[in-house]
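Assess this today:

___
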Amino acid sequence: MKTKDTGSVYRRRPLLVILLILSLAILIRIVYINQLGDNPFFDYPIVDSDSYDVMATKIAEGENPTEGPFFQPPLYPYFLGFLYNLFGHNLFTIRFLQMLLGVVNVLLAYLLAKRIFGPRVAVAVGVALSIYGTMLFFEGELLAPALIIFLNLLLILSLLWSLDKPAWWRALLSGLVLGASAIAMAVILLFALVVLVYGLLRLRRRKEPVGWRRMLVMGLCFLLGVMAVIFPVTLRNLQEGDDLVLISSNAGINFFIGSGKDFDQKVGIRPGYEWQALLQEPIEAGYEKPSEQSAYFVDKGMKIIAKDPLGYLAVLGKKLSLFAHGNEIMRNQELYPFREYSFLLSILVWKWGLAFPYGLLFPLAVVGAVFALARKKEGSWLILLFSASHILIIILFFVCARYRMNILPFLVILAVYGVFALVSLFRERRWLKAVISCGLLTVLLVACNWNVGEMATEFNADAYYNLGVKYMEEGRPEAKAMYEKAVALLPDYPEANGNLGIYLDQEGDHMGAIACFQVVLERYPDDIEANLNLGIAKFGLGDIEGAREQFLLVLELDGDNQLAQNNLAVVERVVREREALALNPGIGEFLTQLQAEPNNPALLTNLGAAYLDVEYYDLALEPLQAAVAIAPGLFQAHNNLGIVLAELGDISGARREFETALMLDPENESVKLNLEKLGDKKIIKE
């Protein structure tokens, strides 16, 4: 009886441990999501998050998410669209649901660690991932890492299952999972080839080796599974754009960005003028299809490599060091400023000499990998190969914190195992190996935390600019402050200066607006919007000739620009008003009086007559039309309006006005004569 009870308790412990770990993971995420809501970007996703949000909204509404082939892998927008369809566009709910997927990831990592390294390591892995700050952050963003991590963990578990119990349908299932991960982020495709080679070696080295024919069937089923998921995406791209794009067309431009010694500058290219100019390059070179444009950038990157192959190897080395470094490298916006809005995040992510947590994690993971290889831990090769192939592909493009997340659970598993292995060396008093291992760890800690720098306390200029755009779209006045912050951080930021200039001009600070627009035009002299806005600001400042030059320049760049045409017409009118005023100073008196009495028909009639005196018929038209509308019985206004219309070529309109004037004063000889002479326009002016 006692033995039975003890066994029963023992069997219940693993489930209890799992429940405790998952409870911790959920609790941490509940706390974090409630703190996260205070940050200004919570309801305003920007850059990639905004792109995903727009696509997902279209998907939820049954629309095509994008015209032509996909530029980015499509799985995450469809996943997000599925959530929108079920729960609506409630970003709090969506973010929390994504965090719950993170809890599932904790469970999968626990199961994988237990499968390879045992239950004690698995428990520590579950706790570590439950509170891993960077993972927590990306789970709360409208970005793909949580989904990609889920698929990658599921993939490794399914592969281990397939290799333990070989069967064609298990291989097919593994292929399906890898294919799904590929349409979330295509860098995993290299691992498909690695799996085939590793699977071949593993199955042949079993106590009971699998036959070649059976292995061939499993390999084909695995590839079939991969292709079965990718094929619908490829087919959709072909149908939408008449172009053979496997998953997405962004690989070429990302490869080019990551090539050359200036890759860090190219990585910093912002969505806007620079990004559009880069995208336009292959189009201007005659490449219309996305696949051709991607190939154009691949070729451009390869030429850079061929020109300086040794320099490229140095670039790869630098990117590898960036991947290993503890600093959380931004992609769209800085991570560290979010600490201000979450006390929990401020505890879990920081830099004070040590860049925590990644600056500690990666060195421990390397040590753990060495121990795993030395001790020939079954299954460790698979996660090592996955991580290595992933790192290789990422450094061919560019490194950022978001892309490191794809292998994060595997690094955590290795790191935890490394800690346990180190502890065991000391417990067993194997001093030499312990000292060597600690020496290796120390070297790695120094290298991975060398010159980590200070934590950013405010968001980068791009983040403020994009938030300003969101505010501007909603008509929120806070937009101006966001543009001011962006310009303060990056004074030559064209997009931010352009939008800030609009606000300054509307507030009457025409000089400030002009300065902003000139910043844009220093880098992009042919930008139509900046030239147009500069003309408007100059007009507001009273520089009529300068405004006229700007509007003419816009029309040289875009002859059909309606805004430029309208503004130029206003400018020309002002010029003519000034000319008329110089010829007849009395016009100024009438204009002054009309400011006090804008609907006085006598003043309007006199103003029209004053313009008639100097033969500025176009300027006389408006006040005379207003006069007859207000006081239809004014004989003089109708007569003068008839004269103006005749001079402007509106003969039927002129005849109507003369006839009206004659009805009001049937004996007026000048009006009669005007009617008689209307055909040859010999009009008598009164």
In short: The radius of gyration is 36 Å. The first strand starts at residue 350 and ends at 352. Residues 2-36 form the longest helix (35 residues).
